[in-house]
Design goal:
By secondary structure, this protein is of the alpha/beta class. It has one domain: Spore Coat Polysaccharide Biosynthesis Protein SpsA, Chain A (Alpha-Beta Complex), CATH 3.90.550.10. Helix content is 37%, strand content 21%. The protein has nine helices and twelve strands. The strands form three sheets. Strands 1, 4, 5, 6, 7, 10, 11 and 12 form an eight-stranded mixed beta sheet that branches. Helix 2 runs parallel beside helix 3. The chain is globular and about 70 Å long. The two termini are 38 Å apart. It binds cytidine-5'-triphosphate and magnesium ion. Cytidine-5'-triphosphate binds next to helix 4.
């Protein structure tokens, strides 16, 4: 009997994981803060739509057999963009190309995630939820998240130490308001703080359970849900953190778009600057 080498074992288990892993890309937001008057996923970044960059990053990571994209309801151009991407990776990767599907997103990010989760193929065991707005997330981050899931994590998020000192504040009233609009109420211990990114990885059954629990939230509660891990934390399931990357910045404002353009045009080629 021959004993498989470690690398053969690793690639066999990576292939097995890929078969049962999906990536959900949420791209149904309106992009108000970017201010282009069009959904952010469509905004050009170095000549191509933000969504195209995001999808290429997911495909390059090679960790999933399915990509499900949540798009603004009825947006024909973004549907065409997904079709063009499907043709592109089909030509490049042949049988290894992930299966690309899309769904109509909802009015909140969580609604968009839920729509996409409901459209995943039977047999999906792991899902990574990724913001199209984090279009330059490097492959290494997808790999770190997928590896932690394969090691038994039910929820894994990429995170970075916070560089600013973070304080809590309250609005001032009465006389104090004539000095300044806010008053500091405390300083968070910075060494314990992390800025959280996507892709966030989950055991699918755990994330579905978390989203079911959130289905009855009122508008204020729904607005307070800013990532999927929060919902899983509310179930009491441990959420693990791996190292994120500064390239995974969320393109939110015009300044972020300038930074992303700068990364793409940088001398080293952006996806490989930082692992
Ligand atoms: N998103 C979504 N469905 C929504 C809202 C947001 O799929 N109803 C997605 C966005 O497309 C984005 C990610 O969630 O990829 C993070 O959201 P954000 O950066 O806030 O994007 P927008 O909501 O588009 O931007 P804004 O809040 O400035 O309008
Ligand atoms: Mg938003």
């Amino acid at each position: 009997m021959t004993i498989p080498s470690n690398s053969a074992e690793t690639s066999t288990s990576a292939a097995a994981s890929r078969d049962v892993t999906a990536v959900v890309v949420v791209a149904a937001g309106s992009g108000e803060r970017l201010g282009y008057g069009m959904p952010k996923a469509k905004v050009p970044l170095a000549g191509e739509a933000i969504l195209t960059h995001a999808l290429r990053g997911v495909a390059a990571a090679g960790i999933a057999s399915q990509i499900c994209v949540a798009l603004p309801r009825g947006d024909v151009q973004l549907r065409e963009l997904c079709d063009a991407f499907t043709a592109e990776i089909g030509a490049e990767l042949g049988d290894m190309a992930p299966h690309v599907t899309f769904v109509d997103g909802g009015s909140t990010r969580s609604d968009s995630v839920r729509s996409a989760l409901n459209a995943l193929r039977d047999g999906t065991r792991y899902v990574l939820v990724h913001d199209a707005a984090r279009a330059l997330a490097p492959e290494a981050v997808f790999h770190r998240v997928a590896a932690a899931l394969a090691s038994g994590g039910k929820a894994v998020i990429p995170a970075l130490p916070v560089v600013d000192t973070v304080k809590t504040v309250t609005r001032t009233e009465g006389e104090e308001a004539s000095i300044a609009p806010e008053l500091v109420t405390g300083t968070a211990p910075r060494e314990q703080l992390r800025a959280v990114q996507t892709p966030q990885g989950f055991e699918l059954s755990t994330l579905l359970q978390a989203h079911e629990a959130a289905a009855g939230f009122d508008d204020a509660q729904s607005a307070a849900v800013t990532d999927d891990a929060m919902l899983v934390e509310m179930l009491g399931v441990p959420v693990h953190a791996v190292r994120g990357a500064s390239q995974s910045l969320k393109i939110t404002t015009p300044l972020d778009l300038i930074l992303a353009e700068g990364l793409l045009e940088g001398p080293l080629g952006m996806r490989f600057i930082e692992g």
